[in-house]
Amino acid sequence: MPSDATTLAPGRASTAPLVVRPAGRDARPVRHGAAVLLGPVALLAAWQLVVWLAPGAAVVSPSDVARAAAGAWARGDLPSALTTSLGRGVVGFALAVVIGTPLAIAVAHVRWFRTAFGPLLKGLVVLPSVAWVPAAVLWFGLTDATVYFVVLMGSVPSVVNGLVAGMAQVPPLYRRVGTVLGAGPLAMTRHVVLPAALPAYVAGLRQGWAFSWRSLMGAELIAGGGRLGVGLGALLQEGRALGDLATVLVAMLLILTVGVLAELFAFAPLEGRLARRRGLDPRAAR
To answer: Judging by beta carbons within 10 Å of its beta carbon (0-12, 13-18, 19+), is residue 237 exposed, middle or buried?
Structure first.
């Protein structure tokens, strides 16, 4: 009698098993989407509950924030601020990757360079990027150079340290096999070390983007406006100066939304692709 995983055609024996998928597999995307929405829905419910329980407190309701967002969008303030900050964030992060990747390779492979600059790059990670804003304003004035300098100082060390950590964890066997196959220093780095270090590199990129976005908001918050234009950080400061809590919350929610979308549509898919290429379950990796 055939088992649940195989069927026998009439008149002949079947040699190929018929795999039966679990009944709940098709429902996984639906459950995942519901789980992603659970956090924002719970946050909105708790927020509205606070408004109901403390009507006299300095708290605006979600509907007030939604009306403020709609008004700012209709006036063009919100699209302009969002476009300005996104453009700066993407350009700054791209520059951090272009600068940080070769710098990390140098730190990992050149001993004197690692001895001289390795501790400094690790120390820069713990230095708040907003501490660079006053010096950057004095050096570059209220220009885009100030913003990009602060972004780079906040994100480059994270990119460098992530890739260096990944290259340090490459098993020595990989390098020995590469040497046996005739790989020189450049080929070893390109075809052996960097692919093996990709998971740690992606983790460094994720942290680098987070530091880049945070650094950008800090720079715009302190030195925004004027010739720099109005980004989300400057919009946040403008709302505070006007005592407009709804505008402050709109800016905060947009800053948070950009971070969440970058994780969901950029870093999480990239991490999942790397996990699948290594025969791992991306859901277990996350």
So the answer is: buried
Nearest to 37 by CA among 48, 49, 29: 29
Token pair, residue 184, equals 């020189």
Q: Give the tens place of pLDDT for each residue, 124-134.
A: 888 888 899 99
CATH number of the domain located at residue range(s) 59-285 in this protein: 1.10.3720.10
- Find the Cα–Cα–Cα–Cα dihedral 71, 72, 73, 78, rounded to 10°: -170
Dump pLDDT digits (tens) for 157-176: 989 998 898 888 888 888 88
Tokens 């800090």 label which residue? Answer: 218
Domain ranges of the chain: 59-285
Q: Which residues contact 60 (CB under 8 A, 6 or more apart)?
A: 51, 245, 246, 249
pTM: 0.79
Buried b (16+ CB within 10 A) or exposed e, 64-103: ebeebbeebeeeebbeebbebbbebbeebbebbbeebbeb
**Token digits of residue 141:** 């004035």
What are the backbone dihedrals phi and psi of residue 248, each rounded to the nearest 5 degrees, phi first? -60, -45
Give the burial class of 20: count Cβ atoms within 10 A of its Cβ; 0-12 exposed, 13-18 middle, 19 or more buried.
Answer: exposed
**pLDDT tens-digit map of 214-264:** 999 988 888 766 566 788 888 888 888 888 888 899 999 999 999 989 988
pLDDT tens per residue across span 9-20:
444 444 545 545
